[in-house]
Design brief:
single chain; 192 residues; alpha+beta; 8-stranded mixed sheet
Length: 192
Amino acid sequence: MPTIKRIDHIAIVVDDIPGALNFWQDALGLNLQHVEDVPDQESIVAFLPTGESEIELVKPTTDTSGVAKFLQKRGAGMHHICLEVDDIDAMLAQLKEKGVALINENAIHGTGGKRIAFIHPKSTHGVLVELYELHPHEPEIRLRRARTLTDRVMMQGQLAASATMAFLRALRGGNGGNGEHAHPEENAEQKA
């Protein structure tokens, strides 16, 4: 018989992770462990451990994901509670036998490569419940995803810096590409 091992995390949907960290990290003193891009869930997740569980701040990266729709409909707030189970396949089979409505009838891959499945809120008295089974390679998968996010942020920063430099060069270089400076008084001084 499958068992629930612990509450793994409570997920909170936010529209601004740095803004939410003002409360969770700065006011409460929880430490930000890492931030992970989760393309499968179309979200970025900030992990704040507390005891044997964690608070997860979840920000959608698209306007069409389930998390985005939740945020648009209900606003920021608690999204779901996650329970770690020792055998997710056996737990899902048990829940199906008992007539529990499942969003995922089979486990899918979530953050860190763990196997997850969601139980529909209509069977839980209004609470979205996630089940998860730890994947043995979760630490390596989380590190790889964190590196991917870091690389993406660095690339976006480099692109922004490059675009800013091109804009500044265009301002200095000129009116319609004729090589003259954008400021008429500077042009007059150079011609004098």
